[in-house]
Amino acid sequence: MRIAPLLALGLLPVVAGCQWLSSKPEESDAIPTRLQGELRRAGEMLLMVPCGEQRNLLLIDAAQLGLEESAAHLQSPGAQPLFADLGGDLDGDADGLFAVTRLYRLQAEGPGCANPAFKRLIVRAGGHEPEWLVSVSARGMVLERPGSAPLALPYVEESLPDGSLSFSSEANDQRIELWLAPTRCVDSMSGARSHLQARLTLNGEAPLAGCGALGGARN
After folding, report:
1. Model pLDDT for residues 101-114, shown as the tens digit of each residue
2. Cβ atoms of residues 107 and 92 within 8 Å
């Protein structure tokens, strides 16, 4: 269990919600090497250029995550490269193979490599209808909703053996709980893929569904 102090964070881009899927949670005993970068097609191959680097990595879908199908769904011919946030095993220090065992995020929209908040985030989750976004760092939890000022709160973190996480707060006359389950999620508007399903409960109201992903402060 971890308790974080209250500190307001800056506004972060709103991420989209998700559809709940019936796929099984992704499991891995070893912590993979995590890389973010641009993903593009080269014939029948998928290549990734890590953020701030020049090398090209050939992606191998070692865990059968459906990378090729997901990339084909998100990227139309001639479109800009996708942003990929992946975990796996590197083979070679320069251009080489990246055997992907975990898909954190795959998206065609958003700041991608240019997101300055990524390294300090523990998790970010959001959804649609109504729109909502929760950003969690070591300094606090921030809830953002259209038409309302960002709400910054302290939180208590709990984790379960299956990899599920809970971030909850009872402060400023608000009762908020964010549950995250390690099951892949598809954004209902953009089609972006992420590795966590999210449910947000506000003051005992009906839960709101969404998608989430761990930030750079947590693998």
Report:
1. 999 999 998 888 99
2. no
Structural domain boundaries, residue 203: 2-22+113-214
- Residue 106 to residue 93: CA distance in whole angstroms: 24
Cis peptide before 81 (omega within 30 of 0): no
Nearest to 12 by CA among 136, 103, 105: 136
Q: Which of 82, 112, 142 is the last residue of a domain?
A: 112
- On whether the CB atoms of residues 179 and 162 are closer than 8 A, the answer is no
Please give the backbone phi and psi of residue 159, each rounded to the nearest 5 degrees, phi first: -130, 150
Cβ burial of 198 (10 Å; 0-12, 13-18, 19+) is buried
Using CA atoms, how far apart are residues 156 and 163, in angstroms rounded to an integer?
Answer: 16
Positive/negative CA dihedral, 161, 165, 170, 176: negative
**Total-model pTM:** 0.82
Task: Classify residue 77 by burial, with Cβ atoms within 10 Å: 0-12, 13-18, 19+.
Answer: exposed
Same structural domain for residues 118 and 200?
Answer: yes
- Parallel, antiparallel or unpaired: strands 174-181 and 196-202: antiparallel
Distance (Å, whole) CA 49 – CA 131 = 32
d(CA 215, CA 29): 19
Please write the tens of the pLDDT for every residue from 1-46. Answer: 554 544 333 333 333 344 443 344 444 456 689 999 999 988 889 9
Phi, psi of 119 (to 5 degrees): -65, -30
CA 64 to chain centre: 19
Token pair for 26:
């992704």
